[in-house]
Amino acid sequence: MSLEERLRIADLHLGGTGVRAIAALVGRSAVTISRELARGGSKTGPQARTKYAPYAAQKQAELRGRRPKASKFDHPELVFVVQKKLCLKWSPDQISDHLAAVFPDRQEMRVSPEVICQALYGGGRGGLRVDLHQHLRTGRAIRRPRRPAAKNSGKIPDMTMISERPTEVEGRAAPVHEFPRPVGLATRRVTPM
Asked: Which of 158, 164, 168, 187 counts the highest number of beta carbons within 10 A?
């Protein structure tokens, strides 16, 4: 949402226009306008629900949406330790556990195995070298899913195709057609209404 839209919302809201009418005039959803008024409102004072600050709301939105987010591997000491252990053929799980044991009080030296894998397979983002994936036990440069794709997923075993139906069914001459039932199940006839 742009600052111009927020200023227009503030003017309309200050004039007493309802949320649905503001949404129609601005061209946004009523839920979006309601959420924007709740987020951008002053949180203190007796008029907390009625006051809307568009400039503060714009600044908050810019701070929330700031990209790219900081990487854990912007810390040089962490990069050094992780690279050293990867060169010794340690797994990301082992490295994560080692960091938690050696640096229990330093949060900047903690990293999960998943973050290490994402940094390796994401092209060396942060500060990790691009060629470190060679030191993993798999040696793969591309990440593979853990589970293989299931064969024939979603297919019914021994399914009868529509094209293989009996000819009596096609004409719909009989009111009820009996299909062969599996052995062991009770047979029950359903009468048509």
From this structure: 168
